[in-house]
Every structure is written in C-alpha cells, then in structure tokens.
Amino acid sequence: MQARPREILDTAGAAGAGLLNFLLPMRCLACDERVGSKDSLCARCWREMPFIEKPWCQRLGTPFAYDVGEETWSPAAIASPPAFDRLRTVTHYDGPARSLVLALKFSRRRELALAMGRWMSRAGNEFLDKDCLVVPVPLHRYRLWTRRFNQAADLAKVVASHCGGRFEPELLKRTRRTRQQVGLSANDRQQNVRSAFTVSRKGVEMVQGRHVVLIDDVLTTGATVTACSKTLLSGGAASVDVLTFSYADPSKGAADDWLNA
Length: 261
Prior knowledge:
Blueprint: H1 5-23, H2 43-48, H3 75-79, E1 87-92, H4 95-106, H5 112-123, E2 133-136, H6 141-147, H7 151-163, E3 166-167, E4 172-174, H8 186-193, E5 197-199, H9 203-207, E6 211-219, H10 223-234, E7 239-247
Parallel strand pairs: 1-7, 2-3, 2-6, 6-7
Antiparallel strand pairs: 4-5
C-alpha cells in the first residue's frame, strides 16, 4: 500500500531529528554528559542535585530534620517573622544547582531558565495560580545595561507561563544603584537595599489588592526579597510570596562566587 504524504513527512521528520541528535547530541544542563531528552540532567547530576524537600518550615521553606507538621514554623520564622507570607526554594546552592545559576547569570545561557523555571513552578505550586502577579527582583538600569538581561525576569516569565499568572517585569523598579551584596554582613545587606526599590508609576494601580509572587535566582540572607516585599506591600499588594531557584547559606561562604542582583 502506498504511503500517504502525511506519513512520508512524519517519517522524514523523525529521520531528520535522529540525524540532528547524532550530529548535535543533547547534553546535560549542568555538565557535558549526553542525555536522552532535551532540557534534562544526566543521572549523576540528578543524584547530586541538592533539592530542598518536605518537611519544611511553612513560612521560610527551610527543611526540618523530621516531620513536625504541615503548618509548623521554624525557630527563625517565629523569632523574626518575614515581611512576605511564604518562601519556597528549589535547591541548595551547591553542586549542579550552583553550576546552573552561574551558567545562566554569567555565561548567558538563558535557555537554562526553561528548566529552572519549571522546577520553580513545582516548588511554588501552593501559591502560584492564574490570579497572581509574577514579578522579578529588578536590576538597576545601569546593571541591566551592562548585563543585557535580568536572569530573575527570565525565570519569572517561565514561572508565569506555567501557572497562567500575569508576568509583570516592569512593576517593581530598583531606583538606587546599590553596592554588590557579596562580602557584606546580614545587617549591611539590609542597609544596602533599604529604600532601593519602588513600585513603578504604571504598577501602582495594578498591584492594589493583588497577590504578588516575587522571583529571584538565589536567596542568601533574604535582605533583597525583604526590601522588595515591603515595597510591594506598602504599595498596596494584598500579599507577597517569594520563590527562588536556590538558597546560598552565607554561614558556609556559599555565595562568595556570585554577584547578587
């Protein structure tokens, strides 16, 4: 029986894809190992990926050593409740996660945001929905000009596409050019970003009474997302949740090799 044109095209397409995979094999997102599917990790990198999993603090998302209940707060959250409602993070800043953050930020491998944003969507699924505003931590215009892109905005765009929320990269503005946070103490970080953000003129009406999900690539002390959250809440937001890809524990010197946005 003679093959139909559609079947011929499908066969040719499959053959072409196979040839392309042979000539340009798919690689692990975090290393050079060959993988069988696009935007994935090899088996070794997957095993070494330091995912943050339940049980965790309901407010800060920090993991507990054992299950103490769904709504339990950690001692840190009780002692100093954050400005935002909840924080969720995909991984610790280590191993393959660290490689992904650095590659996205400094090697301009912007395609990595697709997989990283997908993992973030899963981590924040309890507060992501079609009614939220998805807002990236902004860069100052000078740093945006020198870097050419905002990695937090790339991640936020992917998160918004997964949850159906409204991506608003211009809602929050960084009005003051702050020092890089690397090497600063927790208190100095807070002082550095104080009054550094504002809700844009366009965003003032938009944010009123809305639930905002604030997006960043890495969390260290939380000074930046706290300053942003306070700005959004004082600007009229009903609530703010924070979603980041990775957590760099400053007590372990984990953040020394990346530049805070």
